[in-house]
UniProtKB/TrEMBL annotation:
<dbReference type="GO" id="GO:0003899">
    <property type="term" value="F:DNA-directed RNA polymerase activity"/>
</dbReference>
<dbReference type="GO" id="GO:0003676">
    <property type="term" value="F:nucleic acid binding"/>
</dbReference>
<keyword id="KW-0863">Zinc-finger</keyword>
<dbReference type="InterPro" id="IPR034014">
    <property type="entry name" value="Zn_ribbon_RPC11_C"/>
</dbReference>
<dbReference type="GO" id="GO:0008270">
    <property type="term" value="F:zinc ion binding"/>
</dbReference>
<feature type="domain" description="TFIIS-type">
    <location>
        <begin position="46"/>
        <end position="88"/>
    </location>
</feature>
<dbReference type="GO" id="GO:0005666">
    <property type="term" value="C:RNA polymerase III complex"/>
</dbReference>
<protein>
    <recommendedName>
        <fullName>DNA-directed RNA polymerase III subunit RPC10</fullName>
    </recommendedName>
</protein>
<comment type="subunit">
    <text>Component of the RNA polymerase III complex consisting of 17 subunits: a ten-subunit horseshoe-shaped catalytic core composed of POLR3A/RPC1, POLR3B/RPC2, POLR1C/RPAC1, POLR1D/RPAC2, POLR3K/RPC10, POLR2E/RPABC1, POLR2F/RPABC2, POLR2H/RPABC3, POLR2K/RPABC4 and POLR2L/RPABC5; a mobile stalk composed of two subunits POLR3H/RPC8 and CRCP/RPC9, protruding from the core and functioning primarily in transcription initiation; and additional subunits homologous to general transcription factors of the RNA polymerase II machinery, POLR3C/RPC3-POLR3F/RPC6-POLR3G/RPC7 heterotrimer required for transcription initiation and POLR3D/RPC4-POLR3E/RPC5 heterodimer involved in both transcription initiation and termination.</text>
</comment>
<comment type="function">
    <text>Core component of RNA polymerase III (Pol III) which synthesizes small non-coding RNAs using the four ribonucleoside triphosphates as substrates. Can mediate Pol I proofreading of the nascent RNA transcript. Anchors into the Pol III active site to constantly monitor transcription fidelity, cleaves mis-incorporated 5'-ribonucleotides and restarts the transcription process. Once Pol III reaches the poly(dT) termination signal, can induce Pol III clamp opening and transcription termination.</text>
</comment>
<keyword id="KW-0862">Zinc</keyword>
<dbReference type="InterPro" id="IPR012164">
    <property type="entry name" value="Rpa12/Rpb9/Rpc10/TFS"/>
</dbReference>
<keyword id="KW-0240">DNA-directed RNA polymerase</keyword>
<keyword id="KW-0539">Nucleus</keyword>
<dbReference type="GO" id="GO:0006386">
    <property type="term" value="P:termination of RNA polymerase III transcription"/>
</dbReference>
<dbReference type="InterPro" id="IPR001222">
    <property type="entry name" value="Znf_TFIIS"/>
</dbReference>
<keyword id="KW-0804">Transcription</keyword>
Length: 89
């Protein structure tokens, strides 16, 4: 059996003010992660329907976003210039 023979002193600390200082990191935009607007210049298009405007063609690119044993993530951008909606599969 272990015993603690050392005496401990009790300290009292009084708080004069509560400081609430939160900093939130800047979130990356999707363009930053995917390489910006230039990344979409030379990509292929496919017969994928846009979920926003129902246009029947979309640009696509595939990027490995998870571990190597997982499938690649496909990112789409609507071919309709007025829409330009982006989504992933």
């Amino acid at each position: 059996m272990w015993t603690n023979s050392a005496r401990t002193k009790m300290h009292e600390i009084r708080l004069h003010a509560i400081v609430n200082n939160r900093k939130y990191p800047k979130l990356k935009e999707v363009d930053d992660v995917l390489g910006g607007a230039a990344a979409w210049e030379n990509v292929d298009s496919t017969a994928e329907t846009c979920p926003k405007c129902e246009h029947r063609r979309a640009f696509f690119m595939q990027i490995q976003t998870r571990s190597a044993d997982e499938p690649m993530t496909t990112f789409y951008k609507c071919c309709n210039a007025q829409c330009g909606h982006r989504w992933r599969d």
